[in-house]
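Researcher: Next entry in the queue.
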Amino acid sequence: HGGTRRVEAAGETPALFVDALVPPVALWLVGAGRGAEAFARIADTLGWQVTVADHRPALLGALALPSGVATRVVHPDAEGAEGMAAALGGLPQDPRTAVALLTHQFAMDRAWLEAVLPTAVGYVGVLGSRRRAAQLLEAVEGALAARATPVTAAMRARCFAPIGLDLGGEDPAAIALAAIAEIEAVMHGRSGAFLRDRTTPIHRAG
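Model: Structure for this entry, 206 residues:
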């Protein structure tokens, strides 16, 4: 974060202005349904680096996406450039990366969740009902345990299923807004609660 800093050097304490450069959020949207367009538009407005991945090239090509949004064909069971291993190689695996699973296909969401949950991405969200999310997490936990990669508390903490803040909207754009807002809150270490109820400073000290 930017601000003025004082640094003591050679007996003097000059004031320096520091402007920290924070990389944009990298958001991967898995699933080329109608909802992906709304997710991509909102995230692109925030200056995020957005990629939409799906195993169906025709659906990817039919999306109306902002010009800066990338698309990628990924078949979780395939080998080579379109396989999961190659996709993970192109996925930034750091705390500034978010993955939103929007496929509406249980097997596809499971394959992706198994792949990304053990990585160092900062956020993994899954679209769907609470019941479906619980079933999905149970299946993934079993699969990872069988591979000697048990789900840890840190993995659970960065998995948001169902995805999104409780804003109340139910159409694709409203769901996308709730999810993007949740990701933004997670990236800043905030809860997404009302600012009027916050008892500590709204803005971090410079």
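Model: Residues 130-146 form the longest helix (17 residues).
Researcher: Noted, moving on.
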